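hey so u asked for the seq, here:
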Amino acid sequence: MKRKNQKFLPSNILNSIPQFILLIAIATLTVFPLLWLVSTAFKSPSENIFQSVPQLLPAQPTLDNFIKVWKNSRFDLYLWNSFLVSSITVILNLLFCSLAAFPLARLNFKGRDPIFWAIVGTTMIPFQITMIPLYILAVQLNLKNTYAGLIFPYVISAFGIFLLRQAFQSVPKEMEEAARMDGCSNLGIWWHIMIPAARPALTTLAVFTFVAMWGDFLWPLAIVDKPELYTLPRGIASLASAFSEDWRLVAAGSAISILPIFIVFVFLQRYIIPTEASIGVKG
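ran it, structure tokens below
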């Protein structure tokens, strides 16, 4: 009897099969457009990319589309602009969000909670509503067609303040008290205790901010009209107009733009793990 029972799968695995099938279906629907994009980028001009049944594997793979896009457009400049704007935005976002989150998490002052919830409440306001006032302010500050203008609306975010406040609150008070006994100031506690302890949250915020800035199209469309300041989304939009007769080239440009995000995620994902300092004091 025991041998016969061993042939059957445990009931918990059988119950999980429908969930696995659903997850696989969702993953397939999510990944398929990306696979089709990459496949189109490698297809030769002789292949039809608008078939009723999409062919994922190119019949004659070629790199000519990538070479043509790189040579016939200012794609290297678009990459540099996006990298520069995204990197500076990440640094400023981590700095200002952590500075704002620290007093909201660890200091006691009148109106602390109402201020925090007012900040969180701003996340419900769509960017399209605040874009016009931000644009007018940026123009008045002479930030139009500048790198500073591209970065201006994103130097701090309500989501970042919320995320880091929650991370700072999870740091054991014993660590803060020990630092104060050693004569550490509030700024010193923020730098020496909170920042190292909240490294997973900081890394998460860095990844989210970088991805959001890398793919932002609406604000660069409004604040920049000089091609030498175009970021990747604007550059790819110009590719769509310049190479509208050959979508293979547009797909190649889009595939190149995805690669840096993938690299950033691969290198930073190992840091999105709770450290011992964020869990408790080492014994």
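The chain has two domains: 2-62, 73-279. The chain is about 70% helix and 0% strand.
lmk if thats what u needed
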